[in-house]
């Protein structure tokens, strides 16, 4: 077996835990693949080095991301394209998506015995129509349309299959997958959804209304939205907190289920609701 190890070395103690991971994998006779840029941080370790991330992911059997949920989400799109399972080791604060905590690396032995499961997680396809052409993105967590920092409130027209759903006056709208329901959407008052479900969640951000509530749509829903501003406010589309686009007023943005999925590797038998209870109950503050 070959494991592509992708660490976020900006995290506290990430080098230490990544080194422990490498050594544990080598004891299990699992070959470790890493980007060549990480070699200086792990001198003396037996590692197969790659200069290109795509080539490394194609060559591996599994991907192991060391960091917080952001690190796992960052790797998810590449993992989905190659249809390789991904395991997260949490060195962040919450780690909803991570399969292991840093004190649970002994469970890696299950990789060699086959005692694990793989969950298929839904992704969103986001299509932005601009200047007679479309830009297409995929989101594992969420896509957010919101006003800029110094902008004023926006008007949104949301449609389902070109039929009116609701008009919102708000700071923004969050379109999330079930996996993303525990992220920004949760802070905006959205429901927690089991990530093994397939659906699209729409949550308004600070709506100027007594009646605006989050809405859950079926997996085959074709949603679209246009954002308008009376004050030439800046409109920003954010994909998974990583991709940022400035959107012209009135641009049509479409949201639907992506044909691709993210394969999450699980080495524990705990269910999603146990994870949420544990993580929210901890209320960790600080690094």
Give your account of this protein's structure:
It is elongated, with a radius of gyration of 20 Å. It is 19% helix and 39% strand. It has 287 residues and is an alpha/beta fold. It has helices spanning 14-27, 53-59, 69-82, 110-113, 184-187, 272-282, and strands at 2-7, 31-35, 48-50, 62-67, 86-90, 100-101, 117-130, 133-139, 142-147, 154-160, 163-170, 172-176, 200-205, 215-217, 223-228, 235-239, 243-246, 252-266. A hairpin with a 2-residue loop joins β7 and β8. The strands form 3 sheets. It has a 6-stranded parallel sheet, sandwiched between helices. Strands 8-7-18-15-10-11 form a 6-stranded antiparallel sheet. It has a 6-stranded antiparallel sheet with strand order 14-13-12-9-16-17, with no helix packed on it.
Describe the biggest sheet? 6 strands, parallel
- What's the mean pLDDT score? 91
Number of strands: 18
* Radius of gyration, taken over Cα atoms and rounded to an integer in Å: 20 Å
Structural class: alpha/beta
Helix percent band: 10-25%
C-alpha geometry? elongated
Number of helices: 6
Strand order of the largest sheet: 3-2-1-4-5-6
Q: How far apart are the termini?
A: 34 Å
**Residue share in β-strands:** 35-45%
Query: What series of H and E elements makes up the topology?
Result: EHEEHEHEEHEEEEEEHEEEEEEH
Low-pLDDT windows of residues: none
């Amino acid at each position: 077996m070959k494991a592509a190890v992708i660490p976020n070395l900006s995290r506290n103690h990430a080098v230490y835990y990544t080194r422990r991971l490498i050594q544990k994998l080598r004891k299990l006779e699992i070959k470790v693949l890493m980007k060549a840029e990480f070699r200086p941080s792990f001198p003396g370790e037996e590692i197969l080095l790659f200069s290109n991330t795509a080539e490394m992911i194609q060559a591996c059997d599994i991907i192991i991301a060391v960091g917080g949920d952001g690190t796992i989400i960052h790797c998810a799109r590449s993992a989905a394209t190659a249809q390789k399972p991904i395991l997260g080791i949490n060195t962040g604060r919450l780690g909803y998506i991570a399969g292991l905590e840093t004190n649970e690396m002994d469970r890696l032995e299950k990789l060699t015995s086959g005692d694990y499961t793989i969950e298929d997680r839904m992704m969103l396809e986001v299509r932005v129509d601009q200047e007679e052409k479309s830009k297409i993105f995929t989101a594992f967590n969420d896509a957010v349309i919101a006003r800029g920092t110094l902008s004023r409130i926006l008007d949104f027209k949301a449609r389902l299959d070109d039929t009116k759903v609701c008009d919102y006056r708000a700071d923004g709208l969050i379109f999330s997958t079930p996996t993303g329901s525990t992220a920004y959407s949760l802070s905006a008052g959205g429901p927690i959804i089991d990530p093994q479900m397939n659906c699209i969640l729409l949550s308004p951000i600070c709506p100027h209304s007594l009646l605006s509530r989050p809405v859950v749509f079926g997996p085959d829903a074709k949603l679209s939205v246009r954002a308008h501003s009376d004050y030439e406010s800046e409109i920003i589309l954010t994909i998974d907190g990583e991709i940022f686009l400035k959107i012209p007023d009135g641009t049509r943005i479409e949201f639907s289920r992506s044909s691709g999925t993210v394969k999450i590797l699980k080495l524990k038998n705990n269910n999603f609701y146990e994870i949420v209870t544990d993580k929210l109950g901890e209320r960790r503050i600080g690094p």
